[in-house]
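Known limitations

Structure tokens in this collection are predictions and should be treated as such. Users comparing against experimental data should check residue numbering before alignment. To illustrate the layout, the record for Molybdate transport system ATP-binding protein is reproduced below. The input appears on top and the generated tokens appear beneath it.
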Amino acid sequence: MIRVEIRKRLGEFALDAAFDAPPGVTALFGKSGSGKTSLINAVAGLLRPDAGHIEIDGTVLFDAERRVDLPTHRRRVGYVFQDARLFPHMSVAKNLAYGGRHDRERVIEMLGIGDLLDRRPAALSGGERQRVAIGRALMADPRLLLLDEPLSALDAERKAEILPWLERLRDEAGLPIFYVSHAASEVARLATTVVVMEKGRVTRAGAVAEVLSDPAAVGTIGAQEAGAVVTARIAGLDRIDGLTELALSGGRIVLPGKLGRIGTHLRLRISAQDVILSRDKPQGLSALNVLQAEVTAVDEGPEGVAVGLACGRDRLLARVTRRSARALRLEPGLPVWAIVKASAVAPQDVGGAV
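Generated tokens:
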């Protein structure tokens, strides 16, 4: 368990954040300027808080009252920046060795960088550079890994290249990770816990599926980024149409493409703006995904109405206009039908389940 409770004044900006992070990936999520990077800099020892406490598994890194402030090199925290910051004159092998020699072969295999060892950073793609930077951080045997928006400088193709490796890192590294991002699709795919930040404060914290599907959180997350996270099992493959059939706890949906072997579990992000609601069971639609659900919450905000839905054990989220909410007379307990276009779930929103 990692405990963070810090306060820091930075000119006109005030960082005042407190949360507990269980094992796994904790995403620090929020808009630019919300204090995410300042917070992990404080955890790393690069920024000294004015007050507060930082602790990892019983080891105190910082405590203002007890005057404890471990220097950065004694905190055993690995830090990966947005721009990788590899030494350009060194090969990949020497960059890794600069970080240390802990579990070298396992790190190289886990990140798939064995074929890159003789190259220099200039000969690597953006995704390859970030994998090497993560490897260098892991070679120092950290007890916590900090990733500061590692995909923000990459194009869509490079992001698609590195996301499976980040999933593997999450599943196999065996250490907690703080992952800074302002992209809901990355958070939904990688995180086990999410801490939502706004103007230096924590506004929401908890399991990723609960926080991202909470209608009351849409105002902070942003209407365009809002969406639910569900876990599904591959139940069938349609070779004629090239579709994968997925079993959810509350029904079945299909998505385009071959997404894996039958029985494999996946994590999906379904955007709130891609869910259509109906009071009656739809008939004669081209949409293939129709799920029976129940309204759990209705939250009106400046950009429309966020509607929470229970679909079996899963939680979905829909965003509708105020006019539609009135016309459907939406209220908690109301049975509805949720319609999701098969093409609405983007490839980057589908990943391996934790």
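For this record: The longest strand covers residues 289-301. Residues 84 and 129 are 6 Å apart (CA to CA). Please report discrepancies through the issue tracker.
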